[in-house]
Amino acid sequence: MQDWNSSTWVSVDEPKDSEAAGAVVLIVGAGSGVGRAVARAFAQDGARHMVLADLAPDTASRTAGEICRDFGLRDGEDVLARRVDVVDRVSVQAMVEATVEQFGRIDKLVNTAGVVASPMTLTDTTAKEFDQVYRVNVTGALNLLQEVGPVMERVQASTRLSGPAASSSRSMVFLASAFCFAASRNHGAYVSSKHALLGLLRTAALEMAHRHVRVNAVCPTWVDTPLMAEGLRTNPGLKAYIKRVVPLGRMATAEEVAQVVLFLSSDGASFVTGAAWSVDGGLSAGLPPLPGLDLPGGSGSGSGSLEALGHPERLGRAGKSGPTRESEFPQISTL
């Protein structure tokens, strides 16, 4: 794969000279999926000081090793791998302290950790199941905001920057979901947690703006990740369904989502905060075709239905029984 440069072609595996080279980047959920793609995107953009964290430490270590090998960085020095449980405030605090001890500050935070529960109606969802989803998707995000935010604010205050330089240096990007904007039957806990997450992030954006810390959300629909591959195996018709209802006729790649995260983290988005960017191939722009209609200009056969717009249970956990213990709610890089 090639990137076009005004004077020459360069391989995408050759790091660029950019603002990322001097930034300290903390990525939560970096072990797989979108989080792994984000880590590689930052390395490609020149990042040389990175902490890659995940609930599964072996996956974080694997991503760190790959990046060090592919981009000529030093494992354990330029790139650190950490275990973190975003639900556990002490675990988050330890991760932040380790980052500051190694690199002195945090400039960019990306959080891709979240959970998806099995489908059930609101009346069938227990308070415990509801709370378990919220603990990861909402309280986990709050823990990161409360631990990383003050670190960013202190550094920003100490630099006494003004103008564009002040607003561009520190940023947080959280992976949210297309279901921040719409609901789906049988997924009340997940959908409402994503609505709550968006409200939390917008509040944080307002409260941290005076210190020039930007907070944004990226809201994808189906993404081609290992988790999604499991969903395709258990739902043979899902790929055709996605092709029918998504105007661009496919799911996103993890790399496509990562590029949006990278931009929102960069100086190019220095005046963007409190935003929620859809990465959904046009899905949220309109409704699927009505049953039986074949209209020109669409990517599908026209056999969709208005009721088929949701179904996040097909994101990768369909066909599985719902988690019953906290440990059965893995933190994953997903929607």
TrEMBL record:
Keywords: NAD, NADP, Oxidoreductase. One of its GO terms (molecular function) is oxidoreductase activity. InterPro entries: KR_dom, NAD(P)-bd_dom_sf, Sc_DH/Rdtase_CS, SDR_fam. Signal peptide: none annotated. Residues 23-211 form the Ketoreductase domain. The keyword Oxidoreductase applies. Residues 294-335 are annotated as: Disordered. SUPFAM superfamilies: NAD(P)-binding Rossmann-fold domains (SSF51735). Gene3D superfamilies: NAD(P)-binding Rossmann-like Domain. Belongs to the short-chain dehydrogenases/reductases (SDR) family. This is Ketoreductase domain-containing protein. It comes from Phyllachora maydis.
